Amino acid sequence: MGRRGRAQVVGMSDKGPWGGGGDSGNGSGGGGGDDGPRNPWSLPPAGKRGRVGGSTSLDEFLKRARTGGPGGGPSFPANAGKLWLAAVAALVLVWIAFTSFHSIGPQERGVVTMFGRYTGTLNPGIQFTLPAPIMRVQVEDVQNTRTESFPEGSQPNLMLTGDQNIVDLAYSVRWNIKSPEDYVFEIKNPKETVRAVAESAMRAAVAGKNLTQAIGSGRGEIEAEVQTRMQALLDEYQSGVRVLGISIQKAAAPAEVDDAFKAVTAAQQEAQSNLNRSRAYAQQVIARAQGDATEFDKIYEQYRLAPDVTRRRLYYETMEQVLNRADKTIVQPGVQAYLPLPEARRRQQATPEPEAPATPQAQPTGAAR
Questions:
Q1: I need a surface site. Which of 184, 186, 320, 354 has the fewest CB within 10 A?
Q2: What is the torsional sign of CA 317, 319, 325, 331?
C-alpha cells in the first residue's frame, strides 16, 4: 500500500468510513475530492482501479469461470476431469463394498434374489454377491423363537365346546422359521397368517371336547391337537414356519357364570375324592377276604390229614379267643370255689357309697336345761 493508501486510512479514523460532510458537497458517500476518503463498497475512480493485494487461486478460478474460456464457456483447471473420475471411482467402490459383501450371523440365513427372482440362500459367514440392484439379500433370523399371545389385551376369548357350553381361553403359540425362502416368498404377512391358523385350529380342537375336558383334564390333548393341525395347515401353505408348541394359560367359564362353575367343580372334586376313598376301602376288604380264604385253605389241608386233631385245635383256639376277653371263674371238684375278685371289685366300683349321717350340733356350755 502506498502513501496515498496510508493517508486514506488516517483520514478514515478522523472522518469515519464514508467520510464527513466536507466541502465536496457529495453526501452520498462516494467520496468528496481526491484527498477525502471514499466508500469501501464503491468502485475506485477511473484510472485508479489497481489491485491492492495479490489474488488467490480460488479468485482466479472463479474469475475464469465468470469470464469464460476461449470458446466462450466456463473454464476449469486442466486436472478437473481427473478429479471427477476419482470421485466417481470412490463412489463406485463404496457402493460395491456396501452392497456386495454380506455378514451372515450363525443364527441367520440370507435369501438372495437377482432382479427379484430367487437364486439361492446364503449360509453363515462373509458372503459375496453382485452389487445391488442386480442382486439383493434379505437376512432372516431362523433360530429366533417368536411368540403369539391370544387374546391381545384384556378382552375375553370365548369359544364353543362340543356340549354347547362356552369357555374362555387364553393361550400362546411359539414358532420360528423353518425355510427362509418359503417364508420370504410364499406368504405376505407371516405373523397374521400364523395368528389366523392358530385361532382356527384352537376353535376346531375345543369344539371336539366338552366343557369338563376343556377346562380340566383335556388341556394336554387340546395343545397337542392344535400343534398338529397348525403344522399341517402351514405346510400346506408352504409358509416355511415351524410350530414349536402351544401353551394354554387360562381355561375357565365366562365371568358371568364363573361362580356356578366353581361350585360344580368343587362338587365334582368331592365326588371324586369319595369315590377314591370307597375304592381304597373295597381294596382293603378284598385283601382281608383273600387272606382269610388263604388261611382257610391251609387249615382245610391239615383237616384232611388229621380231622380229630385239627377239630380239637380249632376248638381250643376259638375258646381261647372268646375267654380271653371275658371275666371267668374256674371251679374244680374237691377244691374250694374261686372267689371272683375282679367281678366283686367292679361291682364295688359301680355301687355308689352311702352318704354319712349328719352329726348333731353340740349344745353350748352353760345352756339352760
A1: 354
A2: negative
